[in-house]
């Protein structure tokens, strides 16, 4: 029986698609604080400044894009993926009113404090992937590098949301993964949840009505497209290096990235081992966390 023909699996997947499609998505406390500071100072409250804050929080970013898709004008003929463009179309004050930075993820996890570090690690990993993807897009002369960066930032949004709404299950997945690193995360997710994060994310993207361009860039199956490959490789590198810079998968990552950028694997290794600067609490050398 194939996955699509498994009623129990489909029922579990449909349940979580419904939950996450109707839930008020939380944002990080730091994002809420930064936006509050901007809103309190008219001299600093600019579209660019607000976009800078939102576009570094994957959940706040997807909240904004989801809202825009549901309220876009009929005359809108182009897809909007970039946060600053979305703000220009909606206006800063309407965004604050209609897409408020609440509830807070930290509040949702008050009764599951053990899950908060896991959430922050996955978010940090996503931010690092986004910086890698942007850097490589610039090297490849991609004029729309911000689209690639956003796709990498949101690539693991389903996992991030499940850390908030299914903390016990996501901790169980991590526990099993660390007890037996020969097991694929895909298999463990299926075992614990009854489905995998990738399938959940695909369904959510459809339910949320995300731009087709973004859905395409986030889908590893389209790896024949160099922009999609950029995103996938950035996500892989961030994921593998978050465990250790000695992770066994990294040599293959360097080789694949080298093919994309027309560089030698050794050059890639030298380039990427300098971790992108990050103002969050998880900055610095990556902590133990692997999803492959």
Descriptive notes:
The chain is 64% helix and 0% strand. It is mostly helical. It has two domains: 27-98, no CATH class; 111-272, Hypothetical protein af1432 (Orthogonal Bundle), CATH 1.10.3210.
Characteristics:
292 residues, 2 domains, Hypothetical protein af1432, mainly alpha
Topology, pairings included?
Layout: H1 7-22, H2 29-39, H3 47-54, H4 58-70, H5 83-90, H6 92-98, H7 105-108, H8 115-139, H9 145-154, H10 157-165, H11 167-179, H12 185-193, H13 197-208, H14 212-217, H15 226-241, H16 250-261, H17 265-272
Helix pairs in contact: 1-13, 2-3, 3-5, 8-9, 8-10, 8-15, 9-15, 10-11, 11-12, 15-16, 16-17
Order of helices and strands: HHHHHHHHHHHHHHHHH
CATH superfamily of the largest domain: Hypothetical protein af1432
Overall pLDDT metric: 88
Helix-and-strand structural type: mainly alpha
CATH-scheme architecture of the largest domain:
Orthogonal Bundle
Helix % is 55-70%
Q: What distance separates the N and C termini?
A: 25 Å
Global shape: globular
Radius of gyration: 19 Å
Task: Work out the number of β strands.
Answer: 0
In brief, what are we looking at here?
The chain has 292 residues and is mostly helical. 64% of the residues lie in helices and 0% in strands.
């Amino acid at each position: 029986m194939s996955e699509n023909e498994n009623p129990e699996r489909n029922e579990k997947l449909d349940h979580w698609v419904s939950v996450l499609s109707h839930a008020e998505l939380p944002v990080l406390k730091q994002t809420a604080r930064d936006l509050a500071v901007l809103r309190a100072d008219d001299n600093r409250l600019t579209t660019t400044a607000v976009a800078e804050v939102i576009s570094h929080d994957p959940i706040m970013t997807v909240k904004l894009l989801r809202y825009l898709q549901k309220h876009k004008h009929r005359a809108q003929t182009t897809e909007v993926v970039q946060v600053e463009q979305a703000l220009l179309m909606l206006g800063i004050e309407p965004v604050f009113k209609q897409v408020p930075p609440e509830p807070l993820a930290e509040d949702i996890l008050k009764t599951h404090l053990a899950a908060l570090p896991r959430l922050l690690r996955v978010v940090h990993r996503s931010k690092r992937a986004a910086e890698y993807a942007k850097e490589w897009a610039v090297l490849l002369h991609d004029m729309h590098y911000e689209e690639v960066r956003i796709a990498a930032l949101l690539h693991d949004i389903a996992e991030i949301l499940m850390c908030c709404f299914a903390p016990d299950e996501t901790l169980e997945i991590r526990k099993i993964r660390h007890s037996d690193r020969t097991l694929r995360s895909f298999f463990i997710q299926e075992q614990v949840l009854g489905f995998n994060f990738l399938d959940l994310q695909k369904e959510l993207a459809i339910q949320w009505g995300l731009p087709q361009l973004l859905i395409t860039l986030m889908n590893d199956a389209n790896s024949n497209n160099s922009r999609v490959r950029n995103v996938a490789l950035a996500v892989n590198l961030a994921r593998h290096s978050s465990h250790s810079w000695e992770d066994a998968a990294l040599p293959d990552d360097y080789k694949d990235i080298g093919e994309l950028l027309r560089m030698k694997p050794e050059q890639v290794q030298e380039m990427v081992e300098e971790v992108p600067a990050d103002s969050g609490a998880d900055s610095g050398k990556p902590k133990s966390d692997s999803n492959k």
